[in-house]
Amino acid sequence: MPPPHGAAAPQLEVLVNSPLWAGADAAQDLLRRALEEAARALAPRRAGEVCVVLTDDAAIRSLNRTWRGVDAPTNVLAFPAQPSVHPLAPFGDIVIAYETTQAEAAAAAKPLGDHVAHLAVHGFLHLLGYDHQADEEATQMEELERMLLARLGLGDPYGPACDAHPHG
Questions:
Q1: How far is Cα 59 from Cα 37, in angstroms, rounded to an integer?
Q2: Is the N end or the C end of the chain the one with fewer CB atoms within 10 Å?
Q3: What is the pLDDT of residues 45-100, one digit of tens each?
Q4: Can you name the residues that pair with 52 across neighbouring β-strands?
């Protein structure tokens, strides 16, 4: 589906950096749809690039240790690009770990693709400067995540069955 009149389409690159993601094509397709929807809704005039790296717990643990000082795997990390006024400036990078994401999806009894889409949207919000350190910020991010995922026909990622809050 083309972007609405006047809207720019972001360039999306998905790099599969772990064989654990083999067979998760449906999750990758939903991830792409989720990021396209998020970009259309929240950054309609930007055509910058988003790179998503699908990796494993070992790789994301190393990134988490290096960049956040946390020596543990996590579900998602986001690395915003340097601020720029150029409409083609990259948004940044999102990294999602398979084992943690799959375990959280299983614990919440939801399809892997639904959780991957949620983590991608969460990461994209971080690329746009949103954060969840304070309660008010967290509430704002969660409301945007719910709205964007509902547009894709996905349920509330923070519903009663979910204890898998994104971290990065």
A1: 28
A2: N
A3: 788 899 999 999 999 999 999 999 999 999 999 999 988 777 678 999 999 999 99
A4: 14, 94
Q: How many Å separate Cα 76 from the centre of its chain? A: 7
CA distance 165 to 101: 10
- Report field, pTM of the whole predicted structure over 0.90: no
Q: Which domains does the chain have, with CATH numbers?
A: 11-151 (3.40.390.30)
The per-residue pLDDT for range 113-124, each reduced to its tens digit, is 999 999 999 999
DSSP assignment of 55-113 equals E-HHHHHHHHHHHHS--S--SEEEEEPPP---TT---EEEEEEHHHHHHHHHHTT--HH
Q: What 3-state DSSP class applies to 120?
A: helix
Q: Which residues pair with 96 in a beta bridge?
A: 54, 76
